[in-house]
């Protein structure tokens, strides 16, 4: 029988210079540190989505920095995709300069 280490799923927010997002990221990193001290070998996993409407290159890089800092054991990453219901809510195009 295969044995898997205990794991904890998490959810990270897009990296941002926004104060609230920085506080959330810091609390999340502190929590992960505490979990790893309390339970050595615990696997930390997460989902992350990038390319949100209005996301800047700098915000994308901050997201990557957060991912590198936490060193997830498994990470599922997704690119934002347009959905009609979001367009109806007024979300602007992903990349105003035409890049995808």
Overview of this protein structure:
This protein is an alpha/beta fold and 100 residues long. It has one domain: 2-Layer Sandwich (Transcription Regulator spoIIAA). The protein has helices at residues 19-38, 57-70, 84-88, and strands at residues 7-11, 43-50, 74-79. It starts with 6 loop residues before the first strand and ends in a 12-residue tail after the last helix. The model has no long low-confidence stretch (mean pLDDT 76).
What are the main properties of this structure?
100 residues; alpha/beta; Transcription Regulator spoIIAA; three-stranded parallel sheet; 3 strands; 39% helix
Give the tally of β-strands: 3
How many domains, as an integer?
Answer: 1
The radius of gyration over CA amounts to 16 Å
The number of helical elements comes to: 3
CATH architecture designation: 2-Layer Sandwich
Q: What about the largest sheet?
A: 3 strands, parallel
CATH topology: Transcription Regulator spoIIAA
Order of helices and strands: EHEHEH
> How many angstroms does the end-to-end distance come to?
44 Å
As a percent range, the share of helical residues equals 25-40%
CATH class category name: Alpha Beta
Poorly predicted residue ranges: none
What fraction of the residues are assigned to beta strands by DSSP?
15-25%
| Overall pLDDT score | 76
What class do helices, strands and sheet pairing give?
A: alpha/beta
Strand order of the largest sheet: 1-2-3
Shape: globular
């Amino acid at each position: 029988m295969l044995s898997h280490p205990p794991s904890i799923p998490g959810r990270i927010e897009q990296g941002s210079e926004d104060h609230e997002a920085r506080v959330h990221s810091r609390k999340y990193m502190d929590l992960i540190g505490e979990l790893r001290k309390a339970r050595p070998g615990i696997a930390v996993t997460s989902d992350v989505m990038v390319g949100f409407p209005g996301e800047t290159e700098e915000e994308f890089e901050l997201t990557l920095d957060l991912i590198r800092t936490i060193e997830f054991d498994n990470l599922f990453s997704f690119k934002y995709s347009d959905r009609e219901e979001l367009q109806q809510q007024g979300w602007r195009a992903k990349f105003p300069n035409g890049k995808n």
